[in-house]
Amino acid sequence: MTVRVQDVVAAFIARGTTVATAESLTAGLVAATLADVPGASAMLRGGIVSYASEVKAQLLDVSPDLLREVGSVDGEVARQMAQGTRKACGADYGVSTTGVAGPDPLDGKQVGTVFVAVAGPARTEVRECHFSGSREDIRRAARDAALEALFAALTPETPLGVN
């Protein structure tokens, strides 16, 4: 599925719901892409760029023990990041990205391994993705996966799946 960012913003506005971002490898790309759409201020509450594990723990309430045990590239870390930004920014939904853009593997995960999570009022969904290409390609693909996951969260008939 390829979703246009305008459709994501419109879907959130139509439902009167808000979103916040927690980004590691995308370093703000998701929030910036949403903010590029006129009217996004009606749905975008804010975001936290959490490149460092300490920031994930301190600002997003990611378990320090979990970070020590598995590192930052992990589905449960993504889940906690999404839940943490939802709470920190007072949003209806939180979306997170964490992964390895390269050039080297990280935390035992290969370049291109990305986890995207969306936390909402009823549940949190985590998606594991595997992308290839340059560092820039992987970061853009992670951004797109986050936008798709947000849209899917509002349209339950669209499964999140695994890439």
TrEMBL record:
Domain of life: Bacteria
Gene3D superfamilies: CinA-like
Domain CinA C-terminal: start-end pairs: 6-152
InterPro entries (alphabetical): CinA-like_C, CinA_C
Protein's name in the database: Damage-inducible protein CinA
